[in-house]
Amino acid sequence: MSKKNKNIINVENDNIDIILKKSNKLILLDFWASWCNPCKIQLSIIEEIYIEYYKKIEIYKINIDYNKNTVLKYNIKSIPTIFFFKCKKLLYKTNGIKNKKDLCNLINKFSEF
What we know:
- By secondary structure, this protein is of the alpha/beta class.
- The protein has a single domain (about 10-110), classed as Glutaredoxin.
- It has a five-stranded mixed β-sheet.
- The protein is about 40% helix and about 25% strand.
- The mean pLDDT is about 90.
- It comes from Candidatus Annandia adelgestsuga.
- It holds the Pfam family Thioredoxin.
- Participates in various redox reactions through the reversible oxidation of its active center dithiol to a disulfide and catalyzes dithiol-disulfide exchange reactions.
- This is Thioredoxin.
- InterPro entries: Thioredoxin (IPR005746), Thioredoxin-like_sf (IPR036249), Thioredoxin_domain (IPR013766).
């Protein structure tokens, strides 16, 4: 794992609910797959964002190939898909690659909740 993304944590099915319950920070949950080129592009953007927003946000990624229960639970139909949660509540869901400016705007908006 690169130095930049050491704090972007891979999670598995059972860990999602635990993470959502324990954190009061804004959570970005990125659904991805290793074979997905748009996911690789999105991860690069997310890594940049983490460096700037690490005090406001926790970032987790979940590989859809190994976490089918979570894929079904959250009705993931395409990747990359990003969810924003705060205090166990889903605030926003978006599909496809999002640019850095759009993601930063969402983080600023939702971290104020």
